[in-house]
Write a structure and sequence with these properties.
The structure holds two protein chains of two kinds. By secondary structure, chain A is of the alpha/beta class. Chain A is 39% helix and 17% strand. Chain A has one domain (3-108): Udp-n-acetylmuramoylalanyl-d-glutamate--2,6- Diaminopimelate Ligase, Chain: A, domain 1 (3-Layer(aba) Sandwich). In chain A, helix 3 packs parallel to helix 4 (77-86). The radius of gyration of chain A is 12 Å and the shape is globular. Chain A starts with a helix and ends in a 7-residue tail after the last helix. Chain B has one domain (2-243): Metal-dependent hydrolases (TIM Barrel, Alpha-Beta Barrel). Chain B has nine helices and eleven strands. In chain B, strand 3 (62-70) and strand 4 (76-81) form a beta hairpin. The chains are: A alpha/beta, B alpha/beta. At the A-B interface, helix 2 and helix 3 of A face helix 6 of B.
Chain lengths: 115, 252
């Protein structure tokens, strides 16, 4: 499913627009950057409550096209700057991590979810 | 001259700090163990640091006054201030930015402010081992605005550290030097993680009990002790982490 369809169906707020036409089939939810660095896979959407700039470095390193920031947390301005420069979509929702993961799972479950 | 420094020591103000960790007892123990310099680093509070400095002055121990700050990423960082005035400003900054959750004394322990004679002057009602609402970069920036020393703590630890929470050293993070735990020093952590390979390190005991003080420490080359000479020596990496084999082994 294309990222833009996910944004529409989950009613996500777009803070930084990027990778709208990229095909997404999987996601990774974690607030520990070292865990994401170790275990996320290329092309996954990253779901987290963290908002600081170092998210950007990890998303670049792992080629994660989008970050969904849950629970109405506001991304820091230096994260937004980094994401614009490096083409990472920053999306926001007032839903909790559990709700967001559940909805995304339902949306993607007909696709071929890895692992 | 070479001075012995253990820059990471908790007092009775930290809920996890043993009740024997009074400023007077810490200074006495530091003196017995031959330390020249200690750091007072309670979790997110500086309130026992100035009294420890005063007792230290009378006993020939130089005390770096500071706190072990927990950032929003849950990374622990040692922050030291050059004088009592800046320490007061830093304490205000901590009070304004800590997430205030009531302390459950039965589960976490007492958080006591004490005087030289171990009289209890006050008790902190909110849990000190909580996070500030600020990122590690924001905390570092504040420390340098106050002319302080900033040292990411026990960077090798599998929790509450740069390596566990971020996995790397942010390239534009400003700091004076990095700290290794005893275990990180024994296992030569910098050689096992290439994100942490090319840095200079101190090591400290992270003592919560008197018996742990100086079980590891750092030798620092100085031509006399004051805050700015110390800061300069850290910047110039005139440091050597030491394992004190005469002390007992425990993890971190």
């Amino acid at each position: 499913m294309k990222l833009k369809e996910i944004i529409e169906k989950l009613n996500l707020i777009v803070i930084v627009e990027a990778n709208s036409d990229r095909e997404i089939s999987d996601a990774y939810a974690s607030d520990l950057l070292s865990d994401v660095m170790g275990n996320a896979r290329e092309g996954q959407i990253w779901i987290t409550m963290q908002t600081h700039k170092n998210l950007g470095a990890i998303a670049s390193l792992k080629d994660l096209p989008a970050i969904i920031i849950i629970g109405n947390n506001i991304p820091s301005s230096d994260l937004i700057d980094y994401a614009k420069e490096n083409s990472i979509a920053i999306l926001s929702t007032n839903s909790t991590c559990y709700q967001t993961c559940g909805r995304l799972w339902n949306l993607l479950k007909n696709n071929d979810i890895q692992s | 001259m070479i001075f012995k420094a253990d820059l990471h020591i908790h007092t009775v103000l930290s809920p996890c700090g043993d009740l024997e960790m009074s400023p007077s007892a810490i200074i006495e123990t530091a003196r017995l163990k031959g330390l020249d310099i200690i750091g007072i680093t309670d979790h997110n509070s500086t309130l026992n640091a100035d009294i420890t400095r005063k007792i230290g002055e009378k006993n020939g121990i130089f005390v770096l006054m500071g706190a072990e700050v927990q950032t929003i990423e849950e990374v622990h960082c040692l922050c030291f201030m050059p004088n009592s005035e800046k320490l007061g400003l830093f304490q205000q900054f901590l009070d304004e930015n800590i997430i205030k959750i009531p302390n459950d004394v039965n589960n976490f322990g007492y958080q006591l402010v004490v005087d030289e004679f171990e009289n209890i002057l006050g008790e902190i009602p909110f849990f000190l081992v909580s996070s500030l609402k600020l990122s590690i970069e924001e905390v570092s920036k504040m420390v340098y605005e106050l002319d302080g020393i900033f040292i990411p703590a026990h960077v090798d630890r599998p929790f509450m550290s740069l390596s566990s929470q971020l996995g790397f050293v942010p390239p534009d993070l400003k700091f004076d030097i990095l700290e290794l735990s005893r275990s990180g020093l024994l296992n030569n952590f910098p050689k096992t993680n290439n994100f942490f390979e090319n840095y200079a390190y101190i090591t400290s005991s992270d003592s919560h009990y008197l018996k742990d003080i100086a079980r590891v420490y750092t030798e620092i080359e100085l031509d006399g002790i004051d805050f700015y000479k110390l800061k300069r020596a850290l910047e110039l990496k005139k440091v050597k982490p030491i394992i004190n084999e005469n002390n007992r082994f425990t993890y971190y």
